[in-house]
Specification:
It is built from six helices and no strands. The longest helix has about 70 residues, at about 1-70. By secondary structure, it is mainly α. About 90% of the residues lie in helices and about 0% in strands. The chain starts with a helix and ends with a helix. The chain is elongated, with a radius of gyration of 28 Å. It comes from Citrus clementina. Belongs to the CCC1 family. Keywords: Ion transport, Iron, Iron transport, Membrane, Transmembrane, Transmembrane helix, Transport, Vacuole. GO terms for molecular function: iron ion sequestering activity; iron ion transmembrane transporter activity; manganese ion transmembrane transporter activity.
Length: about 220
């Protein structure tokens, strides 16, 4: 009886430790899988959103600065910015839709080849791969919405200021602040150096506005 009691005493804790170790390992693996899965699903629309907002901001602001170089009328600047917003959002959405749809076709074809060759890792893994496929509609909508949000910054900045010089200054200031925010956000999402990313985005935006303003001013002054 003593021997049986001792055996039971030492066997139960060992099994319990093994059971707890198994649970901890499984939980860790599930956590890691969940993290990877969440990132893969979010990376698509995050990338489209950040790029779309930055493009909307820079392109619309550059258009407005270009028109402002030859016309001081606020109506002309606002109409130009609005046209750029609509045209850019449609262009971004269509481009993103076509691009992601091509990627989707490639991944679906690969899944079909794996299924035909019996190279799938099981029903669960195959289901996860299908759920992780990119969505062309989601990418297009995110890109168009982000572009529109970015383009609204210079539009709103110029909408209520009649004075020509002050209006240009406010547009540049608003765009500069937004560029810094987008550069910081892009660095956080991409785990890149924040200062370097923000400076790169700022310089790029300033160059785009300056070149557009300068060239349009040059062409306008030449009488073309």
């Amino acid at each position: 009886m003593a021997t049986s009691f001792n055996n039971a005493k030492f066997t139960v804790p060992v099994n319990d430790v093994e059971h707890q170790t198994t649970i901890a390992t499984t939980t860790l693996e599930l956590d890691e899988t969940s993290k990877d899965f969440d990132y893969s699903k979010r990376s698509q629309w995050l990338r489209a959103a950040v790029l779309g907002a930055n493009d909307g901001l820079v392109s619309t602001a550059s258009l407005m600065m270009g028109v402002g170089a030859v016309k001081q009328d606020i109506k002309a600047m606002i109409l130009t910015g609005f046209a750029g917003l609509v045209a850019g959002a449609c262009s971004m959405a269509i481009g993103e839709f076509v691009s992601v749809y091509s990627q989707l076709d490639i991944q679906v074809a690969q899944l079909k080849r794996n299924r035909d060759q019996g190279n799938t890792g099981g029903v669960t893994e195959e289901k996860e791969e299908e759920e992780g496929l990119p969505s062309p509609i989601q990418a297009a909508a995110a890109s168009a919405l982000a572009f529109s949000l970015g383009a609204m910054v210079p539009l709103l900045a110029a909408s209520f200021i009649r004075d020509y010089k002050i209006r240009l200054g406010v547009v540049v200031a608003a765009v500069t602040l937004a560029l810094a925010v987008f550069g910081w956000l892009g660095a956080i999402l991409g785990k890149a150096p924040v200062v370097r990313s923000a400076v790169r985005v700022l310089v790029g935006g300033w160059l785009a506005m300056a070149i557009t303003f300068g060239l349009t001013k040059l062409i306008g002054s030449s009488g073309l």
